[in-house]
Design brief:
heterodimer; A: about 290 residues; Rossmann fold; 10 strands; about 35% helix; globular; B: about 220 residues; mainly alpha; MetI-like fold
Chain lengths: ~290, ~220
């Protein structure tokens, strides 16, 4: 699992189950479409997200960058249905997923709606009262009403893929942070979400564990899973992205279909400034 | 050491055991009734509704501020007379201990529910669980684990506080002890220490296992 070259060869397997049962994943056109999204808290003077629009084609990896407070996590949370939106709409495969509610209430999602989006958080959010297998199997059995035996078989296949088959009966507290995040990824994938959201999933990890989690995400990207990734790992963003979006103060400042070019020659001053914060110049050191 | 001989007198030990049974019965009945009520109170305390919040706040504070003895007197002398209830002393005790236990347990339940991180609710929601499924499958199991050690301690407090029932005339273990001491004042003038030592041991035998259980659970579930 620690070698990218090794993982890419077996790439198709992680997402293949989802792709087969949900044609939308492989269909052409936008898997996820965000139109004029506005998110504003009641007590805030300025919106957190101001008129955001973009399309994520099926199978694409969208990387969202930006300084803290730019609204990138909030953007993922609105797509996941964790935050009501005050303007615009979000559609998935042409069907309305979220829209602004005058009452500020979230539209109650049907069971099939609610499993279209998978999300992995920064904090280790496995359910501590369930084993690894129990965590992964809970939602497909309870929400999607799928057959227990086949869910278990798929759970074991997913764990095998992320290199944790031998930890299937472990409790979350017995796992390292990196292992927990890999289990969390399996727990989201087993529902065959059309879009996966990753919200700074390695931000709370020790540097040595970051790699094992990012390798899993990279393999997932190669399998054709549509995903939105918020990350501060610039080297990883450069390696995985099909499309880069830079968010600042709730607006898209710059975006590009050519990640290499974006990282090497950003057009806007804001992007140059942002990317410069990740590099250090030996010249700054006074000898 | 003549006082110790009173313990061997026929009838003394069985009578103390009868008294202990009354103690355990009041405590047991109170705890059994307080458990479901406490869970309900705890859930009500987490609600955002301002009216419910105020009512629960007043209820908890009233029960906490009032000495248990005062509550017992209010229930036995005040309520029974004012509303013409046929409430006997044991009933009044159970009523007070249930109200007290439910308030304290409710506060523990509230604390346990509120200590569950928000991300637990959020990850359940993103996985598609509805609020009932989230509560029963994810939140409540975790809350109960955090709750158990403290609630076992609450049970031992209820057991000990039943001694106040004496003052309403309930013949529980303390009262039985006093009766035995009084009845034998001339024959065994120094029996007091021995009788109370036995009563101490009886309370100890009832409460000690609970303490052990609480400590075990605390250790086993410390990692959550």
């Amino acid at each position: 699992m620690t070698d990218i070259n090794a993982t890419t060869t077996g790439s198709a397997s992680l997402g293949v189950a989802g792709a087969a049962e949900h044609p939308a994943v492989t269909a052409q056109g936008a898997a996820l479409s965000v139109r004029h999204l506005v998110k504003q808290y009641d007590n805030a003077s300025a919106p957190v997200l101001n008129d955001i629009s973009f399309d994520v084609p099926a199978g694409q990896v969208f990387v969202i960058l930006g300084p803290s407070g730019s609204g990138k996590s909030t953007l993922l949370r609105t797509i996941a249905g964790l935050e009501p939106i005050q303007g615009g709409e979000i559609t998935m495969g042409g069907e309305l997923l979220r829209q602004a509610q005058s009452a500020g209430k979230l539209r109650s999602a049907s069971a099939s709606d609610s499993t279209k989006v998978g999300m992995v958080f920064q904090s280790y959010d496995l359910f501590p009262n369930k084993t690894v297998l129990g965590n992964i199997m809970l939602a497909p059995v309870l929400v999607q009403k799928r057959d227990k035996a086949s869910v278990q078989a798929e759970a074991l296949r997913l764990l095998e893929r992320v290199g944790l088959a031998d930890r299937k009966d472990a409790w979350p507290h017995e796992l390292s942070g990196g292992q927990r995040q890999r289990v969390a990824i399996c727990r989201a994938l087993i529902e065959h979400p059309q879009v996966m959201l990753f919200d700074e999933v390695t931000a709370a990890l020790d540097p040595e564990m970051v790699r094992e989690v990012l390798d899993v995400i990279l393999e997932l990207a190669n399998s054709g899973q549509t995903m939105l990734i918020v990350t501060h790992e610039m080297a990883f963003a450069r390696a995985v992205a099909d499309h880069v979006v830079l968010l600042a103060n709730g607006s898209i400042v710059e975006e590009s279909d050519h990640p290499q070019e974006f990282f090497d020659h950003p057009h806007t001053e804001r992007a140059q400034q942002f990317l410069a914060t990740f590099t250090y110049d030996r010249g700054q050191r006074q000898s | 050491m003549r006082g110790a001989e009173i313990l061997l007198q026929p009838g003394v030990f069985p009578r103390l055991l009868q008294g202990l049974w009354v103690t355990v019965w009041i405590a047991g009945a109170s705890v059994l009734l307080a458990l479901p009520l406490g869970l309900l109170v705890g859930w009500l305390m987490t609600l955002k509704n301002p009216a419910v919040r105020v009512i629960m706040r007043v209820y908890l504070d009233f029960i906490r501020i009032m000495p248990q003895l005062a509550l017992l007197f209010i229930a036995f002398y005040g309520f029974a007379q004012a509303f013409d209830w046929n409430l006997d002393a044991t009933g009044a005790c159970v009523l007070v201990f249930v109200l007290w236990g439910a308030a304290e347990l409710g506060d523990l339940v509230r604390g346990a529910l509120e200590s569950i991180p928000r991300t637990q609710y959020e990850s359940a929601k993103v996985l598609g669980l509805n609020s009932w499924q989230t509560f029963t499958r994810v939140i409540l199991p975790q809350a109960l684990r955090r709750l158990l050690p403290a609630s076992v301690n609450l049970v031992t407090r209820i057991v000990k506080t039943t001694s106040l029932a004496t003052l309403l005339g309930v013949v529980e273990v303390i009262k039985v002890g006093q009766q035995i001491i009084d009845a034998n004042r001339f024959q065994y003038p120094d029996a007091t220490l021995w009788i109370y030592a036995v009563i101490f041991l009886m309370y100890f035998i009832v409460c000690w296992p609970l303490s052990i259980v609480a400590r075990r659970l605390e250790k086993r579930w410390a990692h959550d």
